[in-house]
Amino acid sequence: MSRVLHVSSGPYAPPVPARELTVTSADGARLHVEVHGPERAPAVVLVHGWTCSTAFWAAQIRALAPDHRVIAYDQRGHGRSPASRVCSTEALADDLEAVLAATLAPGERAVIAGHSMGGMTVMAAAERERFRAHAAAVLLCSTGSSRLVAESTVVPIRAGRLRTWLTRHILGSRAPLGPVTPLARRILKYATMGAGSAPHMVEACARIVHACPRTVRHTWSHVLSLLDLDHGVRQLQAPTEVVVGAQDRLTPPMHARALVAALPHCVGLTELPGLGHMTPVEAPELVTGKIRELVTTYAPEEPVKEGA
Predict the structure, then answer these.
(1) How far apart (Å, rounded) are the C-alpha atoms in residues 289 and 73?
(2) What DSSP string runs through 52-96?
(3) Res 178: pLDDT
(4) Can you tell me the mean pLDDT for 157-173?
(5) Rounded-to-integer distance, Cα 205 and Cα 2, Å
(6) Is 160 left (phi over 0), alpha (psi -120 to 50) or beta?
C-alpha cells in the first residue's frame, strides 16, 4: 500500500474521520474506508483518482462533514488499501459496489463524486444493480471514458503516433518519483495543474502523488491506457454533472464534452478557465458547491421517523 504522506496543516490536511472500516471486495481485496459526519445526514461518496488517496478530498470532506455523511475510500493499492494482483475497471466497479453495500443502508441513495480514475470507476459500475440502487446523482470531475493517452496534451507536440508513444511511456514510467523537491513540484504542476495554482495546492497534490508506490502507478497506468468505457457512459442513468479544467492536460475538455454528449441525463457542464486536472484541489469551493447542489436536488435528507 502507499505510504501515508500528506500535508498536516491548512485546508488540505485530511480531517480525522468519525470512524474507519475495512471493506472486502469481490476478489478479496481489502479497502480502507473512512466515514465523516453525522450518521443520519445525507450521504456523499467520494472516489479518488490514479496515484491519489482519500487525502485528495480533504477540502470537500472538511466542508461537507458538518451536515453530510461523507464516505471516502482508498482505491486498491492506493493510500491505506493494499495492492491487489487484479487491476482492471471491473475490479474498480466491484470495489465501489462493496463500499456502497458496506456503508449505505438498503435503499439509501447517495451523491457519488469521482475524480479522474474515480470517475472512470463510476462509469465502470454504471450498469451494476447495486450502484444504480444507491446512486442518487453523480459528479464527474476531470475524467474521460476512452482515448486517454491519445488525447493527452502532457507532451506539447502535435497529436499523432509520436505524441501517443511518448505520453504512454512518460505516464507509465517505472521510475520512482522520489522526494518532493522544488523540481518535482514544478513537473507535477505542469502536468496536472493550472499555471496559477497556489503553492500550497501544488504541495498538497505533490505529497499525495509521490506517496503512491511506483509499481501501483505503473500497473494502473497500463489499465488507463487501454480504457474504453464509452458504453458505461451511455448506461449511467443517474443525473450527472461534469466539471473540467480548461487547462487539463491529462483529460482535456474534449473528454468532458464527449461525456456530456453521451450521458443519458446530464444536468450541467462547467469548464473552469485556468485550471488543470486537479479540480477538487484547485477549485475546492466550486466542487463542494456542486456536490451540495446535487444533494439538495436529488438526495435531500429524509425526515427521521418517530420511534426510529
Answers:
(1) 21
(2) --GGGGHHHHHHHTTTSEEEEEPPTTSTTSPP-S--SHHHHHHHH
(3) 86
(4) 93
(5) 14
(6) left
Tell whether 102 is covered by a domain: yes
Number of domains in the chain: 1
306, part of any domain: no
Q: Does residue 179 lie within any of the structural domains? A: yes
Q: For the chain, what is the mean pLDDT? A: 94
Nearest CA to 21 out of 95, 112, 113, 99 is that of 99
Q: Which helix (H) or strand (E) holds 97?
A: helix 89-103
Average confidence (pLDDT) over 119-147: 97
| CB of 208 closer than 8 Å to CB of 8 | no
Domain with 222, as residue range(s), is: 19-299
Confirm whether 1 is domain-assigned. no
Cβ within 8 Å of residue 239, ≥6 positions away? 136, 137, 138, 265, 267, 294, 297, 298
Distance of CA 147 to the CA centre of its chain: 18
User: Model confidence at 7, in pLDDT bands (50, 70, 90)?
Assistant: confident
Q: 40: domain CATH number?
A: 3.40.50.1820
The pLDDT, as a whole number, for residue 9 is 80
Rounded to 10°, the helix 89-103/117-125 angle is: 80
pLDDT of residue 303: 42
Cβ atoms within 10 Å, residue 272: 20
Please give the biggest Cα pair distance in the chain. 66
pLDDT of 29-44, one tens digit each?
999 999 999 999 999 9
Q: What are phi and psi of 183, to 5 degrees?
A: -65, -40
pLDDT(2) > 90: no
CA atoms within 13 A on the CB side of 222: 10
Rounded to whole angstroms, the Cα distance separating 276 from 254 reads 13
Structure pTM? 0.94
Round to whole Å and give the CA distance between 218 and 111. Answer: 30
